[in-house]
Amino acid sequence: MANGTARILVVDDDPYILMSLEFLMKKSGFDVLVARNGTEALQLINEHRPDVVLLDIMMPDVDGYEICTYIRQQAALAATKVVFLSAKSGDADIRKGLELGASLYITKPFSTRKLVSQIKELVDAA
Amino acid sequence: MSGWIIILVCVLYLLLLFFIATWAEQRKKAGKSLINNGWAYALSMAVYCTAWTFYGSVGRAASGGIAFLTVYIGPTIMAALFWPVLRKMLRISSTMRLTSLADFISTRYGKNFSVAVIVSLFAVAGLIPYIGLQLKSIINSFEILAGNAAQHNSSFIAIGVTLILTVFTILYGARSVDTAEKHEGLISVIAFESIVKLLAFLLIGVFTTFFLFDGFADVFRRMAAQAQSERLFTISGTHGMYEWVSLTILSGLALLLLPRQFQVSVVENIHENHIRKASWLFPAYLIAINLFVLPIAFGGHLLFGGQALVNADNYVLAIPLQQGKPLLATFTWLGGFAAATGMIVVETIALSIMISNNLVMPLLVKKVQSERQADPSFQPRILLIRRIVIGVVLLIALLYSKTAGQRLSLVSIGFISFCAVAQFAPAVLGGMFWKEGNKKGAIAGMIAGFLIWGYTLVLPGIMPDAVFVQQGPWGLHWLRPYTLFGLDGFDPIAHAFTWSMLVNVLLYIGVSIHTKAGAQEQYQAELFVDVFKHGRNQQGVQPWQGQSSVAELQQLLGTFIGTDRSTNLLQGYAQRQGIAVHPQQPADGRLVAFTERILGGIIGTASARILIGSSTKEEEINLEEVLNILRENQQTIETNKELRKRSAELSKATRQLEAANAQLQALDQLKDEFLYTVTHELRTPLTSVRALSEILHDNPDLDEAQRQHYLAAITKETERLSHLITQVLTLEKFESGRYRPHLSATNLAQLLTEAVEALRPLAAEKQLSIHLRMADTQVLVQADRDLLLQVLYNLLGNAIKFAHQHIEVQLVAGVSEWQVWVKDDGRGVPADEQAFIFDKFFQARHQTLKKPEGSGLGLAICKKIIELHGGDIIVESQEGHGAAFVFSIPAS
User: Which of A31, B334, B759, B765 gives the lowest tally of CB atoms within 10 Å of its CB?
Assistant: First the structure.
C-alpha cells in the first residue's frame, strides 16, 4: 500500500493531543480522520474503513478497548490495524490492549519521531 | 374392688419393671444406653417425689393450704445451684470413686473411719423409718382401694411387695462388687416410675378439676366460700414466714443430702453436662406434679366435707372411688405405688452400700489382713454381705411400718428424715468450700445436731405423753423438747431444724477454727475444695510412700475383684501413666493410690484406706512433706497455666501482627494506586507538551498563527501540570496529619461574599446567575481564611462547570454549627457515586470512561480542609436534578 493512500483515524478526547496527532499524521502524508470521542470514532470507522486507528483508551462515552473489540469482530475490518495510545502504562493495561488484537501499544507521553516511524512501518508491512 | 385384681395388677406392674430393667441393661451392652441423657437424669432425680408427694401433699394442703409448697420450693432453689454445688460434688466423687454420702464425708475428713461410721449410723436411723412409711403407704392405699373386706390381704401384700422389691434391688442394685459401676437397669426403672407417678397424678388432677368441677377457678371460688378457708391461701405472721423459710431451706438441703438423691444424682450420673438439663427439667417436673395438689385437696374437702372418716391423705383414691371410677382409682394407686417403690429401691441401695462398706466391711477387712494368703477371693462374700444388708434393711422397714410407724403421718416422718440428713450439711458443704473445716469440727457438729434432732423431734414424737415432754426433764421448763430454751410457737419441725442446725454449724465452725487438722485431712481438704484446679490426674499423687511390691498390690486387689481383672486394671493404668512395672519391686505411689481408689469403690474409702495403709507398710509422713508435695503439684499446675497463658498471648500477638501487616499491605496498595493515578494524571498534559514542542522544533517553517496556537497550548498544559503537582502536595500535607491550620476569628459571611464576587464574572461568561442568601452578615467562626476560601472557590468552580442556569449559595444556622450550601442545577451526582466523590482521583480510579474534569483532587482537598476545621462535608443530589454540596463549620 502506498503511503499516500493509507487512511488513518485518530481518536482522542484531549484536544491538544488530537491536534498534535492530526498535524503529525497529515505531515507524514496520510489521509487523516479525527474523532473526539468513541461514538464519533465508531461512526467514522464504519463509514471510512480506515487502515490504521490511533486509539486513546479513556474517553467519556465508549472506551478504546470496546472500540478495538468492535473492530476485531467485524470481518470487513480485518485489515484495519489498531494502535493504542494511552496514558495507562501498567503492564496489565498493555497486555490487555495487545490481547484485544492491537498491533501496537504506545504509552503517553511519546516521541513524535518514533511514533511516526512506527506507524509508517506498520503501514508498509501491510 | 376385689383385692385379687389389684394384686394381679401389682404383680404385672412389677414384672414390667423387671422387663424394663433387663431391656435397659441389654441396650447398654449394645451401646445404646437409655439413660445417657439429661432427660433420664432429671427423671431419676424425681425419685425425690415419694408417696409423701403423692398422697401427703394433698393431705398437707387440705390442712395447711399453700404451705405444702415449701417441700418443692427448696429443691427448685437448689436446682438453680446445681451447677456450682452439685457439679462440684459430682467432680469430687467421680475423681475419687466415692459411692456414698458416708464415703464423701469421711474422705473429706482424712478418710476417717469414725466419720464414716457416724454418718452411716445416722443415715440409717434417719431413713429406715422413711422407707417403712413408704411400705405403709402401699398397704394403706391397697386397703382403701380394695375396701375393708380385703384387710386380711394387706399383710400378704406388704410381705409380698417387700420380697419382690428385695429381689429386684439385689438383682439390679447389687450385682457387681464395684459400687462405682452404674446401675443402668435400676435407673431406667426409676426414670420410668417417675413418668408413671406424674401421669397418674396429672390424670386424677385433671379428672377432679375439670370433670368434677369447672376448672381451677371454680374449685378455688367454692373453697373460698367455705368458712375459715382464708388461712389456706396465705402465709400468716412472722412465725408463718419463718416456718416457710426454714422448711424451704430444709427441703433444699434434703435434695442434696438424702442418700437416694446422692445415689441418683452423683453416683449414677453418667455425664456432668446432664446437670444442665436437670437444673430446669427437674424443677419443671416438681411444678407439674404439684399443679393439681390444691384443686384435689379443695375438691376432696368440698366432696367429703365434714366426713372425718376420709383422711385428706387419701383424697386421690377416695375421689375416683366415690365417683365410681375404679379403673381411674387403680391407675392412681399404681402412681402412688410407683412413687413408693422407686424411693424404697434407691434408698435401700444407698443405705446398704453405706452399711456394708462402713459398718460390716471393716470386720471383713481385718480378716483379709490376717488371712490374705489363705483366701484368694472375697468377691462372693462382699456381694453376699451387701445382699443380706439389703434384705435386712427392707425387713426392718417392714417391721417398722407394721408397728412404730402407725403413730406418725407420712409428712412428719418425711420431715423428720429431712431434718436428720440436713445434719450432714455443714460437714458436706463446708467441706466442699472451706479448707479450714476439719474432722473434729465435723464430728462435733454432726453428733450435737443429731442429739438435738433426736431430743426435739424423735423422742417427743414416739412418746408424746411422757412427763419430760410436757414438763421438761427434772421439771426444767426451758428444756421441754418442743419449746427448747423458750422458743415457742413454731411447729416442731422448724423448731428442731433451727436448734439442731444452729448448734451444728456453730460447733463445726468453732471447733474447726480452734483445732488443727492432720496432714491427711489437709491434703483431702485441698483436693476437695480445689477439685477444679487439680487435674484428674493429680488425684493419683499421694503424699506417702509405701513399700508394697506390685505383685502384692495385684494380689490384694485380686481378692476383691478377681486376679485377672486386677492384673489387667493395674497394668492398664501403669501403661497409661507411663509407670514401669516390675512385680517384685516396690510399687509406684500412683499405682498404690489407684489401687486404693478401686478398692474404695468396692468397700468404701475408709475401709480401703485401712487396708492399703496396713498392707503397704506405709510410713508415717509429716505435715511439712505433705504440704511440700501439694505445693509442688500446684506449682506444676500454675506453671502449666502460665505456659498456656503465654502461648495464648503469643498467638494473640501473632494475630495482631497479621492484622497490622494486612493493614500495611492495604495502605501500601493505596499508596501504589495513588502513585499510579498521579503519574497517569501527569502523563496527559505532558504528552501534549512534548508532542507540541517536538512539532515546533521539527517544523521551523510553521506559519506564525499556528506557532502561537501551539505555544499557547503548551503554556496551558504546563499550568495544568503545575496545578496538579501543587494539589498533590497540598493533599499530602493535609493527610500527613502534621499540618495545623492557622485558625483565627473569621467572618464566614464576608468570606462567602468575597468568593462569590470573585467568581461572578466567570459565571456571567457562561450566562449563569449566582444567588447568595445569608441568615446573618456577622457570622464569626474559627477558621483558616485562605484554606476556607480555597474550598469555596473549588465548590463554586465545580458549580459553574456543571450548572445549566442557576447557582445558589446559602449560609444557614445549624444547631451548633454554620452550614454553607452550594447548589447547582446541573446533571447531579449519581447515588452510587455520592459516597466516593470525596475520594482522591475518584473520577479516574478503576475506570476507562469519564476522563477526569479537573485534577481529581479538588473535592478530596475540600474534605480534608473542612475536617481540619472540625466540620463535615456531604453532597445531596438526585441525578438530573442538580447537586448540593453542604459543609459545616462549628459555631464559635
Answer: B765
Confidence of residue B543 (pLDDT cuts 50, 70, 90): very low
Q: With beta carbons less than 8 A apart as the criterion, state whether B832 and B867 touch.
A: no
Cα four-point dihedral sign A104, A108, A110, A115: positive
CA closest to A16 among chain B residues: B688
In this structure, what CATH number is given to the domain that contains residue A86?
Answer: 3.40.50.2300
Residues 6 or more apart in contact with residue B853 via CB below 8 angstroms: B801, B843
Nearest CB to A60; choose among B699, B716, B849: B849
Residues of chain A found within 8 Å of residue B669, distances taken between Cβ atoms: none
| Residue A126, in any domain of the structure | no
Q: How many domains in chain A? A: 1
Can you say how many angstroms the Cα of residue B825 is from the centroid of all Cα atoms in its chain?
A: 66
Helix axes B151-173, B113-146, angle to 10 degrees: 140
Q: Which residue of B has its CA nearest to A64?
A: B848
Question: Which of B669, B678, B681, B688 is the best substitution to test chain A (most A C-beta atoms within 10 A)?
Answer: B688
Picking from B423, B456, B481, the residue at the C-terminal end of a domain is: B423
**Contacts with B717 from chain A: Cβ below 8 Å:** 16
**Same-domain pairing of B432 and B516:** yes
CATH for B691: 1.10.287.130
Question: Is B377 in the same domain as B428?
Answer: no
pLDDT band at B258 (very low <50, low <70, confident <90, very high): very high
Domain count, chain B: 5
Kindly report the CA angle at B340 between B124 and B147, in degrees rounded to 5? 125
State whether B768 and B658 are in the same domain.
no
Nearest to B688 among A14, A65, A111 (CB): A14
Mutate to test the interface with B, among A63, A108, A116, A117 (most CBs of B within 10 A): A108
Name which of B684, B692, B711 to mutate to probe chain A: the one with the most chain A Cβ atoms within 10 A of its Cβ.
Answer: B684
Q: Which domain holds residue B566?
A: 535-621
Mean confidence (pLDDT) of chain B: 82
Q: What is the DSSP code string of B689-713?
A: HHHHHHHHHH-TT--HHHHHHHHHH
Percent of chain B with pLDDT over 90: 23
For residue B732, the distance in angstroms to the closest alpha carbon of chain A comes to 23
For B213, the enclosing helix (H) or strand (E) is none
Q: Answer for the pair B277, B97: CB distance below 8 angstroms, yes or no.
A: no
pLDDT at B373 over 80: no
Nearest CA in chain B to A90: B676
**pLDDT for res B231:** 61
User: What pLDDT shows up at residue B540?
Assistant: 47
Residue B815: count of CB within 10 angstroms of its CB: 6
Q: How large is the greatest C-alpha to C-alpha distance in chain A, in angstroms?
A: 35
pLDDT digits (tens, 9 = 90+) for B393-443: 999 888 887 776 555 555 577 888 899 999 999 999 999 998 888 889 999
Does residue B860 carry a pLDDT above 90? no
Q: How far is A61 from chain B (nearest CA, A)?
A: 6
Complex confidence, ipTM:
0.93
Q: How far is A36 from chain B (nearest CA, A)?
A: 12
Q: How high is the pLDDT of residue B851?
A: 47
